[in-house]
Amino acid sequence: IQLPVKQHDEVGELTQTFNDMASTIADYTRNLEDKVHERTQELSDSQALFKTVIDNMPAVVFLKSADGAFELVNRCYEEIYGVKLEDVQGKTLYDLYPKEQADTLTAFDRESLGDESIQEREHILEKEGKNIVLRNVMFQVLDENAEMISFGGIEIDITERKLAEQETARQKELSETILENMDQAVYMVDGDFNFTAYNTAF
What we know:
Elements lengths: L9 H46 L4 E6 L4 E4 L1 H7 L3 H4 L4 H4 L2 H15 L5 E9 L2 E13 L5 E10 L1 H22 L6 E3 L5 E4 L4
Antiparallel strand pairs: 1-2, 1-5, 3-4, 4-5, 6-7
């Protein structure tokens, strides 16, 4: 805004002062708008980078608000749980799952809310007739005053490892059964000739 200066007396000086102030405010506003636009673009770029990174992680990632509403899930979460971000965003577990299942999942969430340390557990997800074993790590997001503003989790598919452990245990049990039922004395030693296994016939 600029007022015409028609007089060269006190009124004219006051008008010119007003014009100078208006010009300064306009410059400041333009600079502020530029800074806001710049910061907004930086924030948008950071969010896009963050989403790109977590979408390419070989693990399930999710983030919830302090009251348990989903804020973010990554591509792996969408694939494992068969949902889209827009399906869960702003919703709680009770909006998405049967009450009994939601109660179980919410109970673990509450445990993590009461403890700032990282919480770990394993749980089984049934998908397309198969059981998927997931190892879950829960964490809190704190503000500058150490107040929790959100919390999240990272889940890794450990199904193959669990199956391998089960097969190893089965093979060991089978070997021990065969060894124990042999009539001949059988024993095994290590490199230092210490006994590592033997049957009752020995």
